[in-house]
Amino acid sequence: MSTPRITDKNTVAVDEARANVAEFKDVFDRVKAEVGKQIVGQQAVIDGVLTALMAGGHVLLEGVPGIGKTMLVRTLSEALRLQFSRIQFTPDMMPADIQGTMVLTETEGGGHELTFQEGPLIANLVLADEINRATPKTQSALLEAMQERQITVGKRTMPLPEPFNVMATQNPVEQEGTYPLPEAQLDRFLFKIIVDYPKESEYHEIIDRTTGSGEAAIEAVTDAETIVRLRAIARSVAVPEAAKSYAVRLVMATQPHSEYAPDGVNAYAALGSSPRGVQGLMLAAKVQALINGRFAISTDDVKAVAMPVLRHRLVLNFHAQANDVSADVLVEDVLKAVKVPHSAD
User: In whole angstroms, what is the distance from residue 86 CA to residue 84 CA?
Assistant: First the structure.
């Protein structure tokens, strides 16, 4: 008499995890390759934007005009086959200009009715260009969309399509006619990514791609449904206790006078990261693990995403401004000061 075959659940789970890792990495690499057809260099920026997208987080891109921030987001939307919308913020823009508004339309019978006319905020991928030029009232409307994934017009509340991502740009130099983003809104961005000048060798490629007769054709390699499914895979990535403890200690180290805070944070930080910082570290580290071919995060994954996750969550005091100490310097101090915990810690 033959013995019935018993399915090894652990083996099935391992095989499923490997398949999920392979699919996630394949989609990530294909999208990155498509974006690379248009964007020269900036590999760390592209990786960061894609990581945030896959984690379901918003991105703040900071850099001087003309270095490709807008083109990057537009190219990404083409590679993802997502509904794309660009909002050029100005000081006179009102919430209705981005959310939409109720308009009076004429019906077939000659009557009139109120219908909702959608604004540019109702899209999958929203490019918020020069976000710091918007007034606080308009920024608050964007804040609701970023946090609640919905908009409220009058008494009507409408959910936004999934996936929904805001990728905002701001110029760090020109401050005339701008409104600094409040800490509550900065905290809603998963990443703040600094877009720097290209390298000398990259300028030659930029000239060839942008001043010649040819134009790069970007192919859509995935869609909204796939992105939503990959985000669910990312959330299911395993988190060992050592990695979790390391993330918690990094966030606590940004808080002045905590037990893990280095001297630089105590001297120059007025406020540190909120719990959203540790949530951001976990989500971004999970994506980092997947694109590195693993279904469990490591402390190295957490460390790799710490700078873009934490740099905008530190509020500096007057002494930092007087001594020209940046948030990046303090995050570097935190990364040096916080030791990687062992599993038994």
Answer: 7
Per-residue pLDDT band at 270 (split at 50, 70, 90): very high
What band does 214 get if pLDDT is binned at 50, 70 and 90? low
The pair of three-digit structure tokens given for residue 6, joined into one six-digit string: 């018993």
Architecture of the domain delimited by 23-222: 3-Layer(aba) Sandwich (3.40)
Question: Which DSSP string corresponds to 58-76?
Answer: EEEEE--TTSSHHHHHHHH
**Does the structure show a pLDDT above 80 at 110?**
no
- Measure Cα distances from 259 to 132, 254, 266, 268 in Å: 35, 10, 11, 16
Query: Is 237-345 CATH 1.10.8.80?
Result: yes
DSSP character string of 284-345: HHHHHHHHTT-SB--HHHHHHHHHHHHTTSPEE-HHHHHTT--HHHHHHHHHHHSPPPPTT-
Domain boundaries along the sequence of the chain: 23-222, 237-345
Name the amino acid, one letter, at 150. Answer: Q
Tell me what percent of the residues of the chain surpass a pLDDT of 70.
Answer: 94
How far apart are alpha carbons 343 and 345 in whole angstroms?
6
Longest CA span, the chain:
85
Q: In whole angstroms, give the CA distance from residue 28 to residue 287.
A: 10
Cα separation, 85 vs 165, whole angstroms? 11
DSSP 161: P
